[in-house]
Amino acid sequence: MKKGFLALILAAGKGTRFKSEKAKVLFPMLGKSMLNLVIDCIQGLKPEKACVVVGHQKDEVVKEASLLKVHYVYQKEQLGTAHAVMAARNILLKDRDKDVLIINGDLPLIRSETLKPLLDSHRKKGNSLTFLTAELENPTGFGRIIRSEHNMIKVIEEKDATPSERKIKEINAGVYLFKIKDLLEALPKVSNQNKKSEYYLTDITEILSQEGKKIGAFKTSHSEEIIGINDRYELAMAIEALRERKIRSLAQRGVTILDPSTAWIDLDVKIGRDTTIYSSVIIEGDCVVGTQCKLYPFVHIIDSRVGKRVKVLSSTMIEESVIEDDAQVGPFAHLRPKTLLRKGSKIGNFVETKNTVFGRRSKAGHLTYLGDSEVEDEVNIGAGTITCNYDGIKKHKTTIKKGAFIGSGTELVAPVKVGKRAYVGAGSTITKNVSPESLAVTRSNQVEKPLRIKRKKRK
Ligand code: UD1
Ligand code: CA
Predict the structure, then answer these.
(1) To 10 degrees, what angle do helices 58-67 and 34-43 make?
(2) Residues, CB within 5 angstroms of ligand 2 (ion)
(3) 417, 432 in Cβ contact below 8 A?
(4) Three-state DSSP string of 150-175
(5) Per CATH, is 232-440 categorized as 1.10.3380.30?
(6) Are 186 and 204 in contact (CB under 8 A)?
(7) Contact, 220 vs 121, CB < 8 A?
(8) Crossing angle, helix 34-43 and helix 112-125, to 10 degrees?
(9) Best residue for ligand 1 mutational test, from 81, 154, 158, 207 (most atoms within 8 Å of Cβ)
């Protein structure tokens, strides 16, 4: 049986170049934090235990780590990557005969599939250390790999490299597999005699190499996944790469994305087959969209469920809502949190809903506000209907029973109920319950009087 391994994610650094109060690893990338992406990748390799080294913005990072069900250790001062590993010494000591996978927390594009061969190679060769390298067209900022005679390998950091060393294109990706025993013996030998006065984890390559230990530098061909995000421009580039990856995977699963360059779809969003996404659509957070839907331009959906064959017309915003099969929304509609549109219902232009259940085949076509209401099936809501749900202190409920008809320009002053198949005349202000099968009108009668002043006739 294969030996288990531990995983250690280095995430204590401030990310100085981000110029932010927030720790770099907490920055969101298509709905997930940078740390979450790295943890997802590591969990895909099934370590026995995963542990995050936290430091800068400790409490916030710990909160994220615990949500993701990983352990953490605290690195009080950030004195370098080797110093960060030192912070996990007690955990490592408990498993001296195992391996540890150490990964920089700012490597969110890397996939488990890319790390699996590194793990396999490390185990097969019985190395002391195997680390991931890549050949980059522009290696700026990375540690360079120096391979010399007798299989000696070391990493030299950019700041400490000579001009000719800087020309080397093979770089250190920031993922290492160590035999824990050898790592623990080498760590105290790392010094901070370098340009940054930091304890570099990368110095261990030279230390182990000189001791004659077996080291492997495993070059991956997936160099596009090797990005050590140091500033917000690199973050934007990495998000763009993830976005493209998501679009590609949706397309491969049968979703039509008409304008891939403008679709913005979070990583966890699920979309069914034969759904068509028009240009500039944004789908964020925890969303599921069913099959054969059409999402027209400028639709923005957040944390919602959308059924099958739903049409969402242009410039519509949907938040924390549920839309059942065959419903239609928009254009220019706003479904605010806790809206439930039942099967086959229709919400038209300039309609806003909030905390509202809207029944099967019911319709609200134009210019309407429905808040804190329960609208049963087959109800017709005329243009310009408003539920007056707020009295300045409390919110109140409006109930509209099955088959009722609300005439245009109606105000329903909650709490109020309109009975089954009742009819409310246009322009009414309804303050009392309306009985089933009856007509309620509150507008005053139209009067007609002769004009006192003569109006000039237009020529
Ligand atoms: C590091 C490598 C470099 C490699 C590059 C890949 C070292 C010395 N250099 O450089 O060879 O090419 O990554 O992206 O390791 N961290 C801590 N505690 C600390 C310092 C850092 O937890 O005291 C964490 C950071 O939060 C970060 C990771 O370690 O997630 C890497 O640190 P960073 O400062 O970004 O290293 P690089 O300079 O990019
Ligand atoms: Ca980095």
Answers:
(1) 40
(2) 106, 228
(3) no
(4) CCEEEEECHHHCCHHHHCCCEEEEEE
(5) no
(6) yes
(7) no
(8) 50
(9) 81
C-alpha dihedral over 411, 415, 418, 420, to 10 degrees? 150
Ligand 1 atom closest to Cα of residue 173: 6
CATH class of the domain at 5-225: alpha beta
Question: What pTM, to 2 d.p., does this model score?
Answer: 0.92
- pLDDT (tens digit, 9 = 90+) per residue, 150-183? 778 999 999 999 999 999 999 999 999 999 999 9
Helix (H, G, I), strand (E, B) or coil at 180: helix
Averaged pLDDT, 272-290: 98
Helix or strand holding residue 247 (H, E) = helix 232-252
Q: Give residues (CB < 6 A) around ligand 1.
A: 10-13, 53, 55, 75, 78-81, 83-84, 104-106, 142-143, 155, 157, 171-174, 200-202, 228, 230
Ligand showing the shortest atom-to-Cα distance for residue 104? 1
Q: Structural domain boundaries of the chain?
A: 5-225, 232-440
Mutate to test the pocket of ligand 1, among 104, 136, 230 (most ligand atoms within 8 A of CB): 104
Q: Could you report the per-residue pLDDT of 39-73, keeping only the tens digit for each?
A: 999 999 999 999 999 999 999 999 998 888 899 99
Report which of residues 273 and 443 the model is more confident about.
273
288 is written with which tokens? 């599921």
What's the confidence (pLDDT) of residue 2?
65
Active site residue 222: no
Ligand 1 atom with least separation from CA of 203: 8
- DSSP string for 68-81: TT-EEEE-SS---H
